[in-house]
Write a structure and sequence with these properties.
It is built from eight helices and six strands; from the N terminus they run ααββαβαβααβαβα. With 136 residues, the chain is of the alpha/beta class. It starts with a helix and ends in a 7-residue tail after the last helix.
Amino acid sequence: MEFLKQNVLLIGLAVGSGLALLLPMLSRSVAGITSLSVTEAVILMNRQSALVLDVREPDEFAQGHLQGARNVPLSQLSARLKELEKFRDKPVLVVCERGRRANTAAKLLKAQQFTTLNVLKGGMQAWIEAKMPSSK
């Protein structure tokens, strides 16, 4: 008991540090949707042949996109779910310009029982900043 009293600050610091280390891990996967860095996305695409679903508008998609990406704009996603049905139990990487639309799309897909959903953290902007190749 005396040890705890004398080292309460150090114990608090250790607990706080542990929580700070765990927080990014816990926040990566919210509601079954994992947020991936560019490097993690490349690994997913190469090792698991993930469907890359770009939910930007066609004009944005035409300016540059991930190789092999399928363009289904967020505004059309609900109406075009049948096209994606065969990917329900396969890894899906959802991409947009910065990540907001991709998160919305991933939530919609999750509600339709898609099982392995991932979002590219930072979207195409992060991809470009990482100097990764894009197709036109």
